[in-house]
Amino acid sequence: MLVVKCGGHAEVDPLAVCRDLSGLVRAGEQVVLVHGGSAEVDGLARRLGVPMRRMVAPDGVSARRTDAATLEVLHLALAGAVKPRLVRALAGAGVSAVGLTGVDGGLLLARRKGTHRAVVNGRTVIIRGDHSGRITAVNGRLLRSLLADGHVPVVSPPALAEDGGAVNVDADRVAAMLAAELRATRLVLLTGASGVLADPADERSVRPTLALTGTAGVDGVRAGMAIKLVAAREALLAGVPGVVIADGRSAQPVSAALAGAGTRLT
Amino acid sequence: MLVVKCGGHAEVDPLAVCRDLSGLVRAGEQVVLVHGGSAEVDGLARRLGVPMRRMVAPDGVSARRTDAATLEVLHLALAGAVKPRLVRALAGAGVSAVGLTGVDGGLLLARRKGTHRAVVNGRTVIIRGDHSGRITAVNGRLLRSLLADGHVPVVSPPALAEDGGAVNVDADRVAAMLAAELRATRLVLLTGASGVLADPADERSVRPTLALTGTAGVDGVRAGMAIKLVAAREALLAGVPGVVIADGRSAQPVSAALAGAGTRLT
Amino acid sequence: MVAILCPTCDVGVAVDNTVLPNEIVMCGECRSELEVVTTDPIRLALAPEIEEDWGE
Amino acid sequence: MVAILCPTCDVGVAVDNTVLPNEIVMCGECRSELEVVTTDPIRLALAPEIEEDWGE
Ligand SMILES: [Zn+2]
Ligand SMILES: [Zn+2]
């Protein structure tokens, strides 16, 4: 069982990922594909004239501000554009794929976050009413049933909140939660870099392995990578044995990651 | 087994449909919900500045002109807005729902239509390159598996064409095809009128029954209703015993239809 | 009005100069449906067959 | 600068007049984190606890 997350990053070629996955599926591997799509969300927001805002936490981490209009755009872009493209690409490569958001079948249940702290002009303020949440439960039965019937589930945010609304959740952590729930042997987080870099300015400085010990952060990584490391740690702690952060830009990005490319987290 | 088609009439309340369906599901009925969403497609198209065009066939029937931009908007609106709203409404009423387009799992396979004839300024012209198709096969196995696990599949266009692209198909006829494939006992097509009217100007002139004999059309119905009658006839010919066209605007539209409201087709 | 040979029966078909690209005209001789494939000059080809329905 | 009573320890907290709605200030006495719930007049309440992460 293999869980793959593909971004988000405009430079990752989803068709190459899907072609690569089709080979693994035909070889008998069960695969779940998780996706984000920030570039598509931002692009659709521009077309609709919906301003996208980010907020910066006191620790410097930046996150999407998900007001009601943003959540609508996010749902439109992920479920109505990114996901169908992946499903069609897999179908074109001979693999049956079924697209799901966390709302379908209660696949991803989330607790709505009450408040955020953000830094505005150097001052820390409380932000309320953000439509984002933290995953509390995963409906593994739905995924196992689809996998048993030979489908590749193609999963993305949003998740379903207790109050029946949809909330945005982090797609890397969705992948980690699904890998843990399905007892996947491998979790591959594809990104727009060659892996975790020792020197962010040097593409060739990929760390072959990285130990995520204790709760200490890893220095010198950019924000998107920091969240990937949080997700990787969650998967490792939940017992997923093989967790890799690898380059999504190559011709066969998943096969390469499984063959040792990228950074293996331990 | 019950197949219900709701929407795109703006006046049909999807929340009322979902509440009503939840009662039937809890009573042990297996239900598939099929939806369109013309109003939402047109609304999103306006926001995106994508012109929506219709074409009129030589026989007077009007249809959406589905160029590439229209297909994109249709997919966004149906999969990214209308469907999630129905899935959330069902979840809120205590029913697990899974949203699918015809592309997911090869649920609806279609033959792309080669050409259309349309009347432009009184002249009949050939139109090529329209992204619409006719359903050729239904993946009943995927639906039966979801139904067996207790989910309500929420299905809409587009369908998957042989060439791997998506094509628009008529949602009423999707409902008829699914009812036939699943050997449903009842097909309920909800609309924005009290049923098939003997006098289109008089809401109280509902025909309690209507025989769709042979291939003759029914006089005095508007275009949207004519396509519903085509779908109803297809379901009847395929052996679906109970086919009803009923009012989607009431508080419990499906229960009312099953209790005898609307027009029963024979 | 110009006369264009029908690609089916080779008899001249009277076609109006204001004809549209992709417009359907009928051959009075063999009753073939013909499509205007170019308008300058006007050229005709056998029209594709009618598909029985439209979808949404 | 005005002094507002801390809702936790009842000691005056010095708050700048340019404070923002929902801004966090800290009580120098009891170290409580306080939220500016209104700015005219300035009123303080105990700030909600930090949630550990942000989602997307
Ligand atoms: Zn001729
Ligand atoms: Zn205090």
TrEMBL record, chains C, D:
Q: Which Pfam families does this entry report, sorted A to Z?
A: Zn_ribbon_LysW
Highest taxon of the lineage: Bacteria
> Which Gene3D superfamilies does the UniProt entry name for this protein?
2.20.28.160
| InterPro entries reported in the protein's UniProt record | LysW (IPR005906)
In Swiss-Prot or TrEMBL terms, this protein is called Alpha-aminoadipate carrier protein LysW
Which species? Amycolatopsis magusensis
Q: What is the lineage of its organism?
A: Bacteria, Bacillati, Actinomycetota, Actinomycetes, Pseudonocardiales
